[in-house]
Predict the 3D structure of the following.
Amino acid sequence: MGILDRFRKKKETGEEPVKTGYFEKDNKGTRYETSGQAVAYWSARMSKIKKDPFVLFIFDTEKEAHDALIDLSYVYAAEDNGKPICTTVLQFGYYPISGKYEAWVCGSELTHDMWQEAMGKFKKHGGKRKNDLEPEKIAPVKKEVTKGDVSKVLFVREDKQKGAFGKIMTYKVYKAPNKACAMAFLEKNPVTRSLYYLVVETPEGNFCRDIQGIYKE
């Protein structure tokens, strides 16, 4: 029985509590499902001066890795496919590697409390610590919540680039006044096909979405 089948069974029978109310379209993070995707991330990370904090654990089974992820307060099992989705802009996921499974969360928005929660929950579900980078402890600052206005996101151009094996990658580039507007736009426009990218340029950086999820360039 696969993860999706087990998820549906738990939901129908009440065998175990399952967090619900979220769907694949609600995913704000970038989900990694293969070791190849993870290797590509870690390779690109090496050239960055500032490294994002992360938690990386090894699990014996897929179920342990899956359950550890969705036990986090910011990760849910999507009701439409049972896959983990993240309510924060983070890199996350699990994948098979050398007969076991790696699970991880990573990103500039991984706070110390979120990092500490992941360390504890991953260990609780039988994981063994492989590596991590602790984020700086910063006192919480009350911020004024800015609601994103999708109407302020303007189309700029469409770029096409030739990728590996001659495949064409399409980039739809937009411009927004701030992160809130960019995130509202990306959340409203899920990407359902490979090699298709939405890029929203803002004064706070470029925010993007592809078939894996939302991320900051």
Notes: DSSP finds five helices and twelve strands in the chain. The first strand starts at residue 30 and ends at 32. The mean pLDDT is 88.
